[in-house]
Amino acid sequence: MSKEQPDWPEPIVRVQSLSESCSDSIPERYIKPSTDRPSSTSSNFDDANNIPIIDLGGLSGADHRVSSSILEQISDACKEWGFFQITNHGVNPDLMDRVREAWRQFFHLPMEVKQQYANSPKTYEGYGSRLGIEKGAILDWSDYYYLHYLPLSLKDCNKWPHLPPQCREMFDEYGRELVKLCGRLVKALSINLGLDEKILENAFGGEEIGACLRVNFYPKCPRPELALGLSSHSDPGGMTMLLPDDEVPGLQVRKCDNWITVKPARHAFIVNIGDQIQVLSNAIYKSVEHRVIVNSDKERVSLAFFYNPKSDIPIKPIKKLVTMDRPSLYPPMTFDEYRLFIRTRGPRGKSQVESLKSSK
Ligand SMILES: O=C(O)CCC(=O)C(=O)O
User: Fold this and answer.
1) Model's pTM, two decimal places?
2) Does the C-beta of 242 come closer than 6 Å to ligand 1?
3) How far is the centre of ligand 1, averaged over its atoms, from the C-alpha of 246 (Å)?
4) Which residue among 11, 20, 189, 262 has the highest number of C-beta atoms inside a 10 angstrom radius?
């Protein structure tokens, strides 16, 4: 973030407060252009055409046939969808429920408590209500909380909420579990790419990978047909592990020209490939655009856990995946440089990773 632009360009308005005060209209700033609004191109809960659900139960087991079949399902899902759900992933379902509930309680604390953690665009850590710093931008219908787990030099529990009681310990345990799970999955991705199982993790920085959490809070919206909870974007980082709301759907994944509404499986995580894995895999795996719709009668909470490369190492296609037939598609770039785009301009579909290709 440049030193000249250390703060938000306009006073921050909490979407939750707007939701409480608007009964049948929303401010113009939240009305999307007609081409971006949720529309008839959305498909609702088409079970036959939805992101795959993969049972990870035997992934690390002794039965080779079972683990090979799981790896194959992951490989197909990465190529066809860039998104999949995982069950039997090893994270305690009770912890998942408790963590999501604690975050819901946080967003229902009095505003003056939450404001103690108000964030700035310098690091984005804390309680926020917009992504990007463009003055006059059309905004998304959501508030969020952003915090760091790794590297340890960035982890500062004082920047985490202190309420509800004992939440910091719980959020910490959740982070440890998710780092472990992401480690297992990037190994699977490495193997599926024909690489040694450690290659992707090492390319991410080995022991020094980054991990952070954004908790999204989507308040009720009186005009859901005009707004989005989160605009279309691909995730700038490596891989995302989303814990969705257990009751309220909202995530939509782009499939060709359609938006597919994901139907979350109970106690599953929704996994998606981010831009850095697209780059490292030389576009064998692609990050996929997604967005969030809102609704008028239910709020929604989701926890997006981002597994990212160490922020200051150049990320470029892995050597073994660059061949005469498939030359390197991307120039090296650090994740620090890369994420400035979304931090400055906000979510913009897949324009960043695409522009990287053409900038070669
Ligand atoms: O809320 C969701 O379902 C998705 C959130 C998301 O895409 C994100 O936080 O990047």
Assistant:
1) 0.95
2) yes
3) 14
4) 189
Q: Is the CB of residue 100 below 6 angstroms from any atom belonging to ligand 1? A: no
231 Cβ contact list (under 8 Å, min separation 6): 32, 36, 140, 291, 346, 347, 348
DSSP β-bridge partners for residue 147: 213
Nearest CA to ligand 1 atom 1: 302
Average pLDDT over residues 227-240: 97
Cα of 114 to ligand 1 centre, how many Å? 21
Smallest CA separation from ligand 1 atom 2, residue:
251
Q: Is the CB of 133 under 6 A from ligand 1?
A: no
Cα of 304 to ligand 1 centre, how many Å? 6
The two three-digit tokens of residue 315, written as one number? 């990320």
- Per residue in 339-357, pLDDT (tens digit) is 888 788 888 888 878 887 7
Asked if residue 291 has its Cβ within 6 Å of ligand 1, the reply is no
Q: pLDDT tens digit string along 256-266? A: 888 999 999 99
Residue nearest to atom 6 of ligand 1 (CA): 304
